[in-house]
Amino acid sequence: MTERSDERSSREKIDERNNFGEVDKPRIERAVREILLAIGEDPDREGLLETPQRVARMYEELFQGLRQDPAEHLQKFFTEEYDSMVIVKDVEFHSMCEHHLLPFVGKAHIGYIPQGKVVGLSKIARVVETVARRPQLQERMTETIANLLMDELNALGVGVVVEATHACMTLRGVRKPGSMCVTSAMKGSFRKNTKTRAEFLNLALQK
Known about the structure:
The structure is a single chain. This protein is an alpha+beta fold. The chain has helices at residues 3-17, 25-38, 51-62, 121-132, 138-153, 167-170, 189-192, 194-205; strands at 77-79, 86-97, 103-113, 117-119, 135-136, 157-166, 181-188. The protein has two domains: 3-66, Orthogonal Bundle (GTP Cyclohydrolase I, Chain A, domain 1); 75-205, GTP Cyclohydrolase I, domain 2, CATH 3.30.1130.10. Strands 5-2-3-6-7 form a five-stranded mixed β-sheet, with helices on both faces. It starts with a helix and ends with a helix.
């Protein structure tokens, strides 16, 4: 089974559990109230009284990518005989680490070599946004973006580099502010051709 079919199967299960994909906010509210009680707080005091509702609305926004298919953003393309590199860099994103449900924030740099299909630049940013808006691992996010562009655009090659800081490293555990995780995925000519890969990395990562 392919990664994309795995993703769709997961979304179908989510839809079944959550009433056609709608977030069960009352359930989140009850859970947040229990967490507040568990840490020794009073969920009925003024400052916390509406916190469960706020958290439920926040989760609905932060995880909206679970109810969206990022491939939809790549369905409208333009036929163009252009076979040189296209790069969209510094695409900011916010995601949530699935291990601790703490945020990781950073930038994605995406390049591809078209094979008759080019896509609007904003569509690439929307793909990043949709993939990021779900409980996520940076490694998976990087691979997912690269596979989507490679498959949906039938590109000759795709390169993706993601740089992010993780709150699970800066706020807890080893507590190392300023540390950054860098991941990359190279597909097609970006993997096979060292010069193509070097050109992409040089253009994408230069400040």
